[in-house]
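Protocol step 4 of 5: obtain the predicted structure for the target chain.
Materials: sequence only (see below). No template structures provided, no constraints applied. The aim of this step is simply to have a reference model before the mutagenesis design in step 5. Sequence pasted as it appears in the construct record:
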Amino acid sequence: MKILLVLFLCTLLPTLGAFLECETCFATSSNCTGGRELCEDGENTCAIGITEKSQGGKIEFTVEKGCHSSENCTSRWILVTFGQGEFIRKGANCCMEENCSAAFSHLPPVNTTANGKRCPACYSLSKPCPPAVVNCTGSENYCLDLTTYTLHTEKRIYLKGCTTESTCAGLQNGMWNIVDTDDKKVDCRPASQSSASSGSLLFSIFGFLLFIVLL
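Step 4 output (structure tokens):
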């Protein structure tokens, strides 16, 4: 009988240990602390997410901790540049509950080196905005056109700009979100070469032809 009882407890303990608790909080600074909450079915890991938005010389920074599904865990960042020095980037890191306070404590630097490509650029929380043009930087080689709608705020978000191919793929397949939204439309296309570069090339060709005529 004792052997049967021990075997029963051994099979029961993994089930009891499967109930995961994670620290849950939301803050507009890196100091995000809160109480622990029991995770729901399908949420098998703790996570900490960071969102940073730079617009009009103002930087908004938020940190969120809570339960998450490990299926969506990734070390990659969502990055969209929609103006000169204006961008949105977001990332999440899955972690065990005892390590979440230390994990993901800093942001990787933003690569501001222009790569010779350009995209239409726009960011609006109310109505479609006339797109400007932004120079893509770093590994941004795709143009993003994103429209979202949220029921709880009854607002649409219009976002156009440069981004990476992986960010486009993650947004299109629903794995990643820039904002929590009820409806969204995501279009991506390869970014075009900078018109400035094209202009320089045409100028060089014209100068070469002129040189030949003068000869």
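Step 4 remarks: The longest helix spans residues 195-214. Residues 20-195 form one domain.
Proceed to step 5.
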